[in-house]
Give the backbone structure.
Amino acid sequence: MKISVSYLSSIFDKKSTINLIDNSNADYIHVDLMDGKFVPKNNFNVREVINDLKDTNKPLDIHLMTFEPEKYVDELSTLNPARITFHLESNTNIEKTIKLIKSKGIEVGIAIKPNTDIMYLDNYLNDIDIILVMSVEPGAGGQRFMFDMIDKIEDLNDLRYNKNYLYKISVDGGINEYTALKCHKAGADIVVSGSYVCHHENFNAQINNLKRITK
């Protein structure tokens, strides 16, 4: 299972945190971007984001917690991210946004909040690369993992094998050694970890703990 590390909450300043993740054993840098409307917190200045990340070497895993995510795709694509994920619940034309992201040669993901039923993904499952299951309410780090999301992960895993879908499953929120193992056993391919890694001085030790238990 791959480990994507979010710098949203850290004991270090943002620049140092990004640098530590970039030089760690993480598989991706997870970039949480919030517009202050879709979720209450606002940390989204596109030019600042590009400046913060332009010299990183890790693949970027961008998560847009915004309304109208299509407005940001052109500028963010200059970072050559591995993927851009936007929310099913956002105020956007889902099909057009998928096509826009793919037209940039970038993997596209759809994120779903804890209360969103996976049935609402049905029309898009052939076209997306990633489903991001939110195991907390999006918008803030350090929340407790919602264990009923394990059933959702299992259902998505069963669905892709029964229907031959090619999407991967990522899980974001409340990830630690115990919850990462639960997600792994349920069928997740990627977990997003923030506080578990970035609230410790030794990022690699925490990342290696997650990698070890999910081999």
Summary: The CA atoms of residues 138 and 146 lie 12 Å apart.
